[in-house]
Amino acid sequence: MGFKKTQIGFISVLTVFQIAFLVITSIWFRYDESFDETSDADFDLRTDYYYTYYSDVAVMVIIGFGYLMTFLKKYGLSAAGYTFLLAAFCVQWTLINNAFWHQIHEYEDLHRFDVDLPALIEGMFGAATVMISFGAVLGKTTPLQLILIAFFEIIFYSFNIYLSILRTHATDIGGSMIIHTFGAYFGMGLTTVLTSKKTKEHVKNPDNDASHVSDIFSLIGTIFLWLFWPSFNGALGVPGHRFRVIVNTVMSLCCSCVGSYVWSVLLNKGKFNPVDVQNASLAGGVAVGTSANLYINPVGAMGIGLIAGSFSTIGFNIITPFLEEKIGIHDTCGVHNLHGIPGIIGALSGIIAVWAGTEDHTLYNGAFDSYFPEGNHQPFRQLGALFITVTISFFGGLITGLIIKYLGPNAEKPFSDEEFWFDEENDAEEEEEEKEIENKPLDDEGSKTSSSEDIPLKVKSSSDN
Questions:
Q1: CATH code for 5-405?
Q2: Which DSSP string corresponds to 360-394?
Q3: What ranges do the domains of the chain cover?
Q4: What is the pLDDT of residues 177-187, one digit of tens each?
């Protein structure tokens, strides 16, 4: 079996991008001298400090998101494997884009950019954003399309950070807006263009379903994400803020977990739906991100988590079917329910928390300006950042989808590893069938003969694959 054209394109595009990254890095990047052990006595402490957070975020992105998306019964290799590749690609590309926009913001000529561990954490944040969008088109795209999606999305993602954070001065320590909302609505824009005409076909596809084993693997991803989410929200926070980040995130996650179980039973005739538990239980981590470092009190964090978990579960059971049946949008992983809706809830609760802080400056013990650089105008800046994020993400997804759509076809065998991954069992069965066909005698017209005995074999083979 020869190379598919899409795989030749994949190899070519990925190789060109990687060479470009090497060249750009060699010219533009260097070590951050402040992390040089010869100039900083606290080098080891600082390295260990940030590397701990980097490791936690990397585990979330590669293992957490990767295994969360293994719920499709025949797409486990693709879900975990593509997540691994995209993470490695996105960290490099995010570093380059972030460096560019930081220097534009500082009105400086392009000069060598200092790479430090916080920059690597930001690279993983970019990868997480792409993983969220990947979930919306999970099982429906080729490896070539995924690389191109990641390439274009990171450009829009970094530009949004420039506008929303660097220029608008919004506060969003855990990325409710700039990571989760952005990733979700970029993914919705993508799937609207790439797969909307095939929504009914995708919904009815027997491979677009889970099995008992795949659901268990997906739940493993959920647990990894749930455990490491406090690190994700607090990785780049000021040391004095992290105490509140951890407390608020844990309390919010606990309540979203409880809320997902309650609403799952209510909406599924007395039984737990694995989809709800795997996803909505994490909504609290998404929703508390914007206000994680603010004075919202533990009960505020709990309320955010409970609301987010409840609305996320409702989204999976009511909103997703509506989008599929009435609007024709197919969101494979339901990223709109896990990241989009909770992201909006997080942005709105963040506005309320910021408004409360601007009303009572004593909450922040003289550090008001460091939390709210725009002073009493900060709530409006938060609202503006939300509008900017939703606009850039959705239309960025539409534009990227249009580009990808005309560069190549979608996957021929959606929701299956078979098309692009070597599987010894399935490939051996295919080779055996091909040999049987080749060994059949020719009929009078020179074509292979067939008999009724071959039909059950063919049906059995297709169902097994």
A1: 1.10.3430.10
A2: -GGGGTT-HHHH-TTGGGHHHHHHHHHHHHHHHHH
A3: 5-405, 425-464
A4: 999 999 999 99
